[in-house]
Design brief:
heterodimer, A: 307 residues, mainly alpha, MetI-like fold, B: 530 residues, alpha/beta, Rossmann fold, 2 domains, six-stranded mixed sheet, 19 helices, 26% strand
């Protein structure tokens, strides 16, 4: 197992390297730069800024410079927020995105799985149709509709929660963003779990369990669930990577100072280092969660372990 | 006579399908007494399995059972799940046809044995663990303590079926329902499992309800037999009586469905069409960087054969003996060493392009009539496809006519050739597969277990068909099978393989009639011939 993890971590290095390289050069193909966005900046000032940030040097030299800094864990300064380095920005923003993302993910997995199981056990009956219909609706309504509706109802009409803002991480401030992030995921998990569970309940070994007179709880929760959980696990990996690195829409609507907003803002402002930073973080999370998925697979399914 | 422990009266099983209700079982009644072995016999689709599935509450979701199934005077049909669960696995247990998939792949077998013990007998985990080891000993699993931690995929098919049996008998049931428990196993393993069931029955005094299509098995272990056809019981009685004087025409046909007849011998000077010398196939492990290649597994180890025009060589052995691998090597579908001469011409080193025209001459029919036909092509297209490759000049109409002719020769109504494979039975599909080989007018056909997936009666028809086609076209067959009854009916000579090596070879009558090697003797005994 340790060897497997080590090998996977080692293969992550070239992957990351490729992602960094491709993003770096793609970014520079886009016209403009961090300092010629605003009109009327004195060309001499721009030149000075470019010199300070070494943007006047040849591209390959900038690239090597970035790589060497990255290896030392230095993501560079932000060009549009000169008071902060990218690392500093992430240090405050990433934990916020992770908190909201983790909560949304856990809730989506638990509630979605339970709903999926209920639907599977009542296949083609009223309860099943209800779950499937709700799940379909849930995955079709976009986040930017759910979020304002939530604000309108619970914040403005009922005054139960604040409209937006982080509020120093108070629970009431988290409800809205977590719910909004969770709902579409929950819908997907419920549908995945329903399908996998129906499949699992038809398996021959489930027939064996029933023929041996085991209780329905054991048949469903111990035997069927264990094989049904596989597709959910493989979905949860990439989903976790994207949830934990923040959502632009949710963070913008709810005014959450997370990392998700930076990506779009920085890309528009050609804030090269911030864009690269988010790419590196997102890639690292994706690689990490895929590794976790593979490990979970091996834990759940002994047949995987032996390969 | 003791009173029956299970009495079925007027059992009906219906399935709601898209085409309306299908009645799989129509008013079947029979009973089973303490310690008795009753066999329910019928072909696939006769409804024989569905009766007991229904009684045990294991029907698919669209299935409904009606009637009365009295177990010690209590009707099992319509019993609430809780009450049924006190009977299932404790007083009535069941083993299934599919040893490969009937155990949970995600749990060690020990855990799967312990769970019903704790559930029904309220044993502590420790006591259940000890009992589970005892059970594994009882079903003759070697090293039971160590095996407790093994997962199903680490066991062979026979061992898995033993574990299933251990689980089924764990709570000393009064009745064991065995639904085709040996069908998916090799013949020698089949015999071992049957012996084991017999022993256990004597020791534990349980009744066995044996569901099977195999009359050999019935004759060997049953006291009474119930014959089913199309959802109805057509005959019932003691085994000796039914076999000696069957009352029903269908029973008669079932008993007579053993492949019979022998192949007329070929002339000694018939031309040699295929000659194989020292064929060997090695499945190498993948070579890791900077490490020497591991020696790999020799699936076929230096086998030779000479096939004459009109001759059939039967290649016999258990699964894993290398018989299919040898065939694939000869067809050059696998890399192999040794020489292969087709009509005197060495083909082992020919490039794929040079080999292509020769492939027409060596055709193959596979075992699985369900998997070997493309589900997206019609029967006619499947048969004509080879003509596209080998006779590109033919017009579509000519191809279609050739396909229709080949199908007719295989006793397949060519009017049906625009239908898709899933619309046909296993026997019809195998006819399509044979027509696909025949349409190219080959001189050699490799038959890789072409009858194993078929019911006995259909098997017999296919054997007759193959023999007729051989006589008419002077075909040579390489006939691969684990079923000695079919091999005997078709072959001139037999090669017995084990672990990729030749155990014994010779004329058919000699090898089966007077086997020289122990292994061959075991195969012959297990096949219950003669």
């Amino acid at each position: 197992m340790t060897r497997f993890i080590l090998r996977r971590l080692l293969t992550a290095i070239p992957t990351l390297f490729l992602i960094v390289t491709i993003s770096f050069f793609l970014m520079r193909v886009a016209p403009g730069g961090p300092f010629n966005q605003e009109k009327g900046l004195n060309p001499a000032v721009i030149e000075n800024l470019n010199r300070v940030y070494q943007l006047d040097q040849p591209l390959w030299s900038q690239y090597l410079h970035y790589l060497s800094n990255l290896l030392h864990g230095d993501l560079g300064p932000s060009y549009t927020r000169p008071d902060f380095t990218v690392t500093e920005m992430f240090a405050t923003a990433l934990p916020i995105s992770i908190q909201i993302g983790t909560l949304a993910l856990l809730l989506a997995l638990t509630i979605g799985s339970v709903l999926g199981i209920i639907a599977a056990l009542n296949q083609n009956r009223g309860l099943d149709y209800l779950v499937v219909a709700t799940a379909t609706a849930g995955s079709t309504i976009p986040t930017f509709v759910i979020a304002p509706l939530y604000q309108l109802t619970f914040a403005l009409s009922l005054s139960l929660v604040p409209v937006a803002g982080w509020g120093g991480g108070a629970l009431v401030n988290k409800i809205g963003p977590v719910l909004t992030l969770m709902l579409p995921q929950l819908a997907v998990v419920a549908r995945l779990m329903r399908g996998a569970m129906i499949e699992a309940l038809r398996a021959h070994h489930i027939r064996t369990c029933r023929a041996m007179g085991l209780s329905e709880v054991s048949v469903v929760c111990r035997h069927a669930l264990r094989s049904a959980v596989m597709p959910v696990i493989s979905y949860a990996g990439p989903a976790a990577a994207s949830l934990l690195t923040g959502s632009v829409i949710v963070e913008t609507i709810f005014g959450i100072p997370g990392i998700g907003r930076y990506f779009v803002e920085a890309a528009l402002a050609r804030d090269y280092t911030v864009v690269m930073g988010t790419v590196v973080v997102l890639a690292a999370f994706t690689i990490l969660f895929n590794l976790i998925v593979d490990l979970l697979y091996a834990i759940v399914d002994p047949r995987v372990r032996h390969d | 006579m003791t009173t029956p422990i299970l009495e079925l009266r007027d059992i009906h099983v219906r399935f709601a399908t898209l085409d309306g209700a299908v009645e799989a079982v129509r008013g079947v009644s029979f009973s089973i007494r303490r310690g008795e072995t009753v066999a329910v016999v019928g072909e696939s689709g006769s409804g024989k399995s569905q009766i007991m599935m229904g009684v045990m509450g294991l029907l698919a979701q669209n299935g409904r059972i009606t009637g009365i199934a009295e177990f010690h005077g209590m009707n099992l049909i319509g019993l609430p799940r809780r009450a049924l669960n006190r009977i299932r696995g404790e007083r009535i247990a069941m083993i299934f046809q599919e040893p490969m998939t009937s155990l949970d792949p995600l749990f060690p077998i020990g855990a799967q044995l312990i769970e019903p013990l704790c559930h029904h007998q309220g044993l502590s985990r420790k006591a259940a663990h000890a009992r589970a080891i005892e059970l594994l000993q009882l079903v003759q699993i070697p090293e039971p303590e160590r095996r407790m931690a093994a997962y199903p995929h680490e066991l062979s098919g026979g061992q898995r079926q033993r574990v299933m049996i251990a689980m089924a008998i764990s709570n000393n049931p009064e009745l064991l329902i065995a639904d085709e428990p040996t069908t998916a196993l090799d013949v020698t393993i089949q015999a071992e499992i049957l012996t084991l069931l017999r022993d256990l029955q004597e020791r534990l005094g349980m009744a066995i309800l044996f569901i099977t299509h195999d009359l050999h098995v019935v004759r060997r272990i049953a006291d009474r037999v119930v014959v089913m056809r199309r959802g109805e019981k057509v005959e019932e009685g003691p085994v000796e009586t039914v076999f000696a004087t069957p009352q029903n025409a269908y029973t008669r046909a079932l008993i007579d469905a053993e492949p019979e007849g022998r192949k007329p011998p070929v002339a000694l000077d018939a031309p040699v069409v295929l000659e194989v010398r020292d064929a060997a196939v090695t499945f190498g492990r993948r070579r890791r960087l900077f490490q020497p290649a591991e020696p790999g597994f020799r699936a076929v180890n230096g086998l030779s054969l000479t096939l004459r025009r009109g001759e059939t060589i039967g290649i016999v052995g258990e699964s894993g003996s290398g018989k299919s691998t040898l065939a694939r090597a000869i067809l050059r579908l696998l890399p192999a060493t040794g020489t292969i001469r087709l009509h005197g011409r060495a083909i082992e080193d020919l490039a794929p392009r040079a080999l292509l025209p020769l492939r027409r001459d060596m055709q193959v029919v596979m075992q699985d009539p369900f998997g070997s036909l493309s589900p997206r092509m019609t029967a006619g297209q499947i048969v004509a496809e080879g003509l596209l490759v080998h006779h590109p000049a033919m017009s579509a109409a000519e191809r279609d006519r050739a396909a229709a002719e080949a199908l007719t020769e295989c006793q397949f109504d060519p009017a049906l050739r625009n239908r898709y494979p899933h619309e046909f039975s296993g026997g019809q599909r195998q006819r399509i597969a044979i027509a696909r080989a025949l349409v190219l007018k080959p001189s050699i056909i490799v038959l890789d277990e072409p009858t194993s997936a078929l019911d006995r009666q259909v098997q017999k028809q296919i054997v007759d068909l193959l023999r007729r086609l051989q006589a008419e076209h002077g075909l040579s067959y390489l006939f691969i099978s684990h079923d000695l009854a079919v091999v005997r009916a078709l072959s001139d000579r037999i090669m017995v393989l084990k672990s990729g090596e030749l155990v014994e070879a010779g004329p058919c009558a000699e090898v089966i009639g007077a086997p020289k090697q122990d292994y061959t003797r075991r195969l012959v005994q297990a096949a219950l011939l003669g």
